[in-house]
Amino acid sequence: MSKIVAIGRRHFIGCFAAVGASRIPCDAPEAFNEAVARLVAGERPALAVVDDCFAACEESLELLRRRGGAVVILLPAAPTKGHPALDSIRSLIEKAAGANILGEY
User: Fold this and answer.
1) Angle between helical axes of 29-41 and 58-66 (0-180°, round to 10)
2) By mean pLDDT, which of 3-17, 18-32, 74-88 is the weakest?
3) What is the structure's pLDDT at 1?
4) Taking the model in full, what pTM does it have?
5) Tens digit of pLDDT for each residue in 6-21?
6) Domains of the chain by range and CATH?
7) Is the dihedral of CA 31, 37, 40, 41 positive or negative?
8) How far apart, in whole angstroms, are the C-alpha atoms of residue 75 and residue 50?
9) CA end-to-end span of the chain
10) DSSP labels for 42-80?
């Protein structure tokens, strides 16, 4: 497993292949919770980029932060208006990856 993992719906995690991230597809909160449990039990990533549709899975996110030791970043997968952090996060990821891997909306 790479040091970066992307967890979420398929359309969200696909772009992270460009930076060599491991990708874990999840379509439902139950699948997300199971994926996090497997992730913290195995080799733990340094950075977890999570589809924000799983923001309500607070217990699993906290488990990933505490037991997994990962920096967890929730990113919106769909276009949003009035999300002040999105442009900042998009800029940081572009600088880190050397390219805009999130695409444009």
Assistant:
1) 10
2) 74-88
3) 56
4) 0.71
5) 999 988 898 888 888 9
6) 4-97 (3.40.50.10580)
7) negative
8) 6
9) 30
10) SSPPSEEEEEGGGTT-HHHHHHHHHTS--EEEEE-SS--
Quick one: CA torsion of 101, 54, 33, 67, rounded to 10 degrees? 70
**C-alpha to C-alpha distance for 33 and 83, rounded to whole angstroms:** 26
Please give the structure tokens belonging to residue 65: 């932060």
**Tokens standing for residue 98:** 């050397």
- Residue recorded with tokens 């949003």: 80
Encoded tokens for 52: 């924000």
The tokens of 101 are what? 């891997």
Taking a C-beta distance cutoff of 8 angstroms, is the pair 7, 35 a contact? yes
Q: Which amino acid is at 20?
A: G
